[in-house]
Amino acid sequence: MFEISVAVIKLLLGTSAFVLIGWLGARDKRIGGVLLTFPLLNGIAMLTGADPLGVAGTNFPIVMWNSALFLIAMYKYECMPPMPATWDQEARILGRVLFWIALWAAGATTLALLRDTLSFAGWLFVVQLVFAVLYISRWWRAPLPPSFPTFSGMWFNGRGFIRAACFVLAFLILFGIAYFNKDARWVGWASAVPLPGIFALATLSATESKENLLSLGDAVLLGPLLVIPFNWVLSRAIMHLRIEEAGTFAEIATVVLFWAVAAAIVFGLVPPFVRRRDRVRSKQ
Questions:
Q1: Helix axes 2-25, 195-207, angle to 10 degrees
Q2: Residue pair 70/201 in contact by the 8 Å Cβ criterion
Q3: Which of helix, strand or coil describes residue 276?
Q4: Quick check: bond before 39 cis, omega within 30?
Q5: Looking only at Cα atoms, what is the longest distance across the chain?
Q6: Which residues, other chains included, contact 54 with Cβ-Cβ below 8 Å and sequence gap of 6+?
């Protein structure tokens, strides 16, 4: 009964954070791009009993794959996958979700198998930083007007419920793998499943202009620059708590604190960076 109660608390906290952060991020496409890889499930994975360092090690390369996949999908969604012109909006969304999940799984599984060779946080961070700088300096787009969706308008409808359900499904996949297989490699793999982001991106690809969609891409490569240090530091904090036998609720409180700090970094640092890049872009 205790384990079930703890799992419910984790699910409620994670879903609440997902809904709140998603709503705030929807007001700015650039912040929304960073939030596509926000480490909600990564944090929960640290609480499963698997080796936190191993979980983090799997996440380092996979989050880079996530951001690259999102960026590719933004540019190539018309042909990823090719679909008949007669398909309606909902069919296109479903087709893209299924195709992108399959593509993600192929890449993420390969990276998980190569984890011991690839998972060096320092040089992966540097590689991601180089890619992000190159992309932002070359392809940063002119700013779009901000939108101000209401909380109810974003979540209290069919697509909002599906996005939340995607998060819950990803949570259940993570806990199912953690329950039946304590191997940190695959717990980390499950914690990187980007179901909510994939569904959100597929929805935008069918409901908004490509210009709006590509605005997310301006900052999507910045996401791993948050997630890699987040996982590196949090995994060591959880290990310390376990050595000290601090208990489950101390670990949960630590994860929530890390989420709050990560969100503060995104909402505090991304807007001034975006304004500066927009000024540079307007002069070009």
A1: 30
A2: yes
A3: helix
A4: no
A5: 61
A6: 115, 183, 184, 185, 187, 188
Residue 119's pLDDT is 78
Residues of the chain with pLDDT below 70 are: 1-6, 25, 146, 284
- Distance (Å, rounded) from C-alpha 29 to C-alpha 40? 19
241 contacts 148 by C-beta, under 8 angstroms = no
Contact 56, 234 (CB under 8 A): yes
Distance in angstroms (rounded) separating the CA atoms of residues 26 and 35: 9
Summarised one tens digit per residue, pLDDT across range 216-235 is 889 999 999 999 999 999 99
Spatial CA neighbour of 128 closest among 200, 54, 229, 25: 229
Q: Which residue in 179, 176, 184 sits closest to 50, CA to CA? A: 184
pTM given for the model: 0.91
Q: Count the Cβ atoms, other than its own, within 10 Å of residue 143.
A: 18
Q: Which amino acid is at 51?
A: D
Q: How far apart are CA 206 and CA 67, in angstroms?
A: 20
What is the pLDDT, as a whole number, of residue 54?
93
Cα separation, 217 vs 74, whole angstroms = 7
Q: What's residue 63's pLDDT?
A: 96
Residue 255's identity, in one-letter code, is V
Q: Which two tokens stand for residue 16?
A: 């609440």
Distance CA 88, CA 271 (A): 36
Q: CA-to-CA distance for 31 and 38, rounded, in angstroms?
A: 10
Question: pLDDT value at position 106?
Answer: 97
